[in-house]
Amino acid sequence: MPLSDANRTTLRALGETLFPSTGPTDPSGADIVPDGVDALVAGMQPPVVKKLGLVLSAFELAAIARFGRRFSRLPDEKRTRYVDGWMRSRLAPRRIVYRAIRELCASAYYNDERVWPMLGYDGPLVGRRAAP
Amino acid sequence: MSGLRSGRTVRGTETLRADVVVVGSGAGGASAAYELANAGLDVVVLEAGPSVRPEEFTQRQMDTVKRFYVDQGAQGPADGSIRVLQGRMVGGSTVINGEVCFRIPDAVLDEWAKEHGVRGLSPDEMRPAFETVERMIHATPNAGRHLAGGRRLGEGLAKLGIEPKPVARSVKDCRGCCYCFAGCAYGCKQSTDQSYLPAAFEKGAALVSDARVEKIVFDGDRAVGVFARTAEGALDVKARAVVLACGTIETPLMLLDHELGGRDVGKHLALHPVLAVGGLYDDEDDSYRSALIGTYTDAFVGDGYLLELATGAPPSLAPLAGGFGRHHKEIVRDVGKASIAGAIIRDDGSLGRVRRGRGGAKVIDYALDARTKEKARRAMRKLIEIAFASGAKRVALPLTIPFEPTSVDDLRKLDSLALGPADIAFFSYHPQGTARLGTVTDFDGAVRGVRELYVMDASLFPTPVGVNTQEPVMGVATVLARRLAGRMAGSVTRP
């Protein structure tokens, strides 16, 4: 079961905020996280994917109460403040949501081979051709 | 029929006959199956997961997690405070473990005897079983370059006066690629699919993969087989005894679904929460290409945790660097030079439970108590001390709100940190204790209230063993399977 377009928009903004590009060899999470998360949830049970979709929607829309706009439409600086607010929230359920979203996005981002050069990682050993 | 077969080839309902049917092919099921077959009994093993050849592993962690981890690696309590990682394939979690081999410490066996009345598992009775296990899975102490995993933190430990010791691992000709948790692509890891199961097949045992057991079949109060579903058919296995080795999460669910084992089933879940801490360094001389887990120290067992020093591929370690945004990116660049320590915390306070929730869903309840939180705090404090002694410039901790100590002077701040389910993230590789010896089963592993139904996996453990569970499970299953084989050889049916 794929995520909705609205969820993918949220993930794109999250990718940018959580894992911004810091240089030419460091790709932004915006270009990697939505597809990566879609691939991760592809094998999951539909009720689990549905719940994840609801959590992402709640995260997106709760920004309206604080900043008057949904999360994905906020400027960078306000997005960062918003995510930081969830991370440091006094309400444990908000910190739990932050952690779950971050963990999912981090799995999607760091397991994409476009990110590996930034980590100084040259990838798996199997399937490589022997050195000439 | 002997050897391995996929349940995907089953059409209609096939009937199989055996002396013993074993449910599950991980550490417990495979070692029990081998011992029973070695004693001359006809054994059929059923495994819910698929059979995976080493060449199918890609050394990409997420590939394995998505295809072969239970619940795509997301298994655990709803608050996400701890992820319970288990393998779902022929070989179970032994295929995705770090190969670490420890016997059950004598102190734990003594505790089982004194505080839980366990008989027949004394250090003297366990020793021959552990000797067999270590031979079967080729448990060998790390040497040479395989000691390099976590080397920098090991140097810090030595500066504090504690010499790290080589870990023994179940592997032959290890290449030191560090992808153990993604499954060994070279077939070097002596997981049960490479060790116990082929040996059991040679003794005539059969295994059907992709066959999910739905029902234990009884004749009166006597277990006489199981009924399993496959993709396009079913298996009706008739046997004189049934051994459940589905692991600490699934075995109690199977018992609960059959209203067996009494009120204690599913309770006393221990998870061995693992706290992963990383030391980050400036210099380039370290490499993650070595054995995943190199050395350990048991110097802090009295404080409630075992310390193992490790490495890992950068994509797996990067998420451990805390926070987000530019600062997180700055930390993550050095992750290839990180030295990792895992503190395995002994959670002996009966903190969790496995049960059925609404609609029959699997539910795992688990919450740290004050005493276990204190163990976690002590482990973090000690690891920060070790990291700075080793010359680390940063220490990465698994906390939701980033806490980045810059020197040992910051240790005091740890005391005021909250460690609730929303604050710290653990991993669990070692669930134990949901069908305990002496309450759910007798001391032979026989489920109380019925006959000829046995449990032979980590759910039997009355208290957590405090070390990696592969060898402990195999040791206990070996003892119990030998006893069962002795009784079955002695009489056609158990009196």
Summarize, please.
With 132 residues, chain A is mostly helical.
Would you mind describing this structure in some detail?
- The complex is a heterodimer of chains A (132) and B (495).
- With 132 residues, chain A is an all-alpha fold.
- Chain A has five helices and no strands.
- Chain A has helices at residues 5-18, 33-41, 46-67, 76-87, 92-110.
- The longest helix of chain A is centred in the middle third of the chain and has 22 residues, at 46-67.
- The mean pLDDT of chain A is 93.
- By secondary structure, chain B is of the alpha/beta class.
- In chain B, helix 1 (27-38) packs parallel to helix 6, helix 1 runs parallel beside helix 12 (470-490) and helix 4 (123-136) packs across helix 12 (470-490).
- The chains are: A mainly alpha (132), B alpha/beta (495).
- The interface between A and B is large, with 39 and 42 residues.
Give the arrangement of secondary structure elements:
The complex is a heterodimer of chains A (132) and B (495).
Chain A: H1 5-18, H2 33-41, H3 46-67, H4 76-87, H5 92-110
Chain B: E1 3-6, E2 12-17, E3 20-23, H1 27-38, E4 43-46, H2 61-68, E5 82-84, E6 100-101, H3 106-116, H4 123-136, E7 139-141, H5 151-159, E8 165-166, E9 168-170, H6 196-202, E10 206-209, E11 212-219, E12 222-229, E13 233-238, E14 241-244, H7 247-257, E15 267-269, E16 274-280, E17 293-297, E18 305-310, H8 314-317, H9 325-332, E19 339-345, E20 352-356, E21 362-366, H10 370-389, E22 394-396, H11 411-414, E23 426-428, E24 453-455, H12 470-490
Parallel strand pairs in B: 1-10, 2-13, 3-4, 3-14, 4-10, 5-23, 14-24
Antiparallel strand pairs in B: 6-9, 7-9, 8-17, 11-12, 12-13, 15-20, 16-19, 16-22, 17-18, 18-19, 20-21
Helix pairs in contact in B: 1-6, 1-12, 4-12, 5-10
